[in-house]
Amino acid sequence: MKTLLVSSLIFFLTACAGPVKQMYTLPEGLGEIVTTTPLACRFDKQMADGISPQNSSWYFWREAQRTETRDERSNQGEVWERNHAGQLFYTRLFYNERVALEFVPGDLAATGATTSWAQLSSIIDPNILGKELPLLSKETSGKTVVEYYSGTVKGVATEVDWLPALQLPARIVKQLPEGAVTLVLAECGKGSKFAMTPITKTELDKFRHLDYTDLGDMEEDPMVQHLEQLMGGGHHHDGH
Question: What's the pLDDT at 221?
Fold first, then answer.
């Protein structure tokens, strides 16, 4: 198998962006959250290709050593875990197919996927804020501080409305080749009240597990061929 997409999240964060301002309301209760983990958040996602905007939900769960995402529209998800040595382990979840594609640290290195835990746990790397992305302004809504950043990262125009207390964006706008993609925080709290919840060990055990290192010997497997089509032989965004 040729090089596959490693993380749709990474793709979203490195995709092109265009400056698009839009009005939105911050979720209630953000100012009452006093810890950054655990958190369960739902984002409104819009993909606009200039013809018919597509709206859906995109979910993000964060624990101290684990993050998980799930995209309502594609019904795919991602799990990133970090061990005590700081090594990253990645699982791509295909809910319709009931398949879990697993990457160990060596696989991630082999694919050239570079990311940091700061980026994975905050959706966008906080280290670029105020550097590649200049701070334009900040305001306080109730107890919630929002910082507004806009600029270019590696030649890519990017806008981020940032919640420093939560280390999460309230809004990100990206401009993919197929059209604009916007994520806006709709709900966020310590407990998940969403219809979609993090995958349980019992549910994950029922999935077919594929190791990334074995895919090269499975080119004739219909499921592997199907997954390649889903991933387009390259990048895909969960919602992201």
Answer: 87
